[in-house]
Amino acid sequence: MEQLTVSKLAERAGTSADTLRYYERIGLLPAPQRSPAGYRLYGEEALERVRFVKRAQRFGLRLADIGELLTIRERGLCPCGRTRRLLEARVAELDAEMAALARLRHDIRHMVDTLSVDEDGDGWQCGGSLVRLTEPPHDGGGRHSDLC
Amino acid sequence: MEQLTVSKLAERAGTSADTLRYYERIGLLPAPQRSPAGYRLYGEEALERVRFVKRAQRFGLRLADIGELLTIRERGLCPCGRTRRLLEARVAELDAEMAALARLRHDIRHMVDTLSVDEDGDGWQCGGSLVRLTEPPHDGGGRHSDLC
DNA sequence: CTTGACCCTAGAGTTGACTCCAACGTTTAT
DNA sequence: ATAAACGTTGGAGTCAACTCTAGGGTCAAG
User: Fold this and answer.
1) pLDDT tens-digit profile, chain A (148 residues)
2) Which of residues 51-80 of B touch strand D (CB under 7 A)?
3) pLDDT at residue B44 above 80?
4) Three-state DSSP class for residue A82
5) A136-148 core/surface letters (b: 16 or more CB in 10 A; e: else)
6) What phi and psi, each to the nearest 5 degrees, are found at residue A103?
7) Which residues lie closer than 8 Å to B81 by C-beta, 6 or more apart?
8) B107 touches chain A (CB under 8 A)
9) Is the pTM of this model over 0.85?
10) Could you give the CA distance from residue A31 to residue A3 in angstroms, rounded to a whole number?
């Protein structure tokens, strides 16, 4: 189950082929093997790497920062104590983040519970758009999901 | 403890005055009261609102979407069942998000635990920059925090 | 009564992260 | 064997979200 082409990998990782090529350009992904014709061929480890990027991105890191994390992850890390402290601070922040997310979840839950009354009120004119959330390009079916 | 000027509010909310004025321009914040001289004067509710924005942003929502959430939050919501379903899907996604964050936390924790050996190794030449994470502009003291 | 730190506006510029394009080669299905 | 559906490149374009600039007003301290 090795040897994914660029758009296969993109699909599995929930992104686009363009994005993967872009990541390669900026050095976030290593140049993969190539087929005789010059097609990119990725292994499973690339998938894991892209997923890590996506997760870290979700957390609010910029791609440049993620690149460094990745380097550290597989390199062993340049071992100054300062770095350790930095990463530890990061973990603490992560905890704060998660608490904040829990708050947001509660807020939204509350909105839903208290405000939804008119179940399936078809007789309403509403407009606006909300929330692509997982991905903007991932438009496969859900349209650009309006709210109201 | 009311009546914050724009940069006071910015400081408390962990952002910049420019950003707050920008939010006002795009309709994310209501136009606040003004002093006789035309200075913006905000109350505590503005702080709460900005914090909500930051939280929601952290979760990956675009400002336009957040604006809608905010409107719904204080308006009572236009009551189509579709909306409820949308928000409920959002909560489910939030749960997935939180799980992903927990994974990331674990990854980083692991990195820290396994890789940090040379506690305070001063004899090292390293370079690079990592992670502003909480805010990019919040440069008060931590410089642009290098890693290594 | 001036200096420095704040505030205002409209509008231009920057940054990060894609996203698309043209012009071309390859693979697969009919 | 030809079209559809992929792949390649370099470079340009787009979008959100700031961020900065110019050119001005305000206000507390000395």
Assistant:
1) 579 999 999 999 999 999 999 999 999 999 999 999 999 999 999 999 999 999 888 777 889 888 888 887 776 655 455 566 667 777 887 787 788 778 878 877 877 776 545 444 433 334 444 443 333 333 333 323 334 4
2) 57, 62-64
3) yes
4) helix
5) eeeeeeeeebbbb
6) -60, -45
7) A116, A118, A119, A120, A121
8) yes
9) no
10) 14
pLDDT at B97 over 80: no
Q: Do A65 and B131 touch (CB under 8 A)?
A: yes
3-state secondary structure of A10: helix
Q: How far apart are the first and last CA of chain B?
A: 42
Q: How far is A46 from chain B (nearest CA, A)?
A: 17
Measuring CA to CA, which residue among A120, A107, A92, A14 is closest to residue B94? Answer: A107
CB B10 within 8 A of CB B17: yes
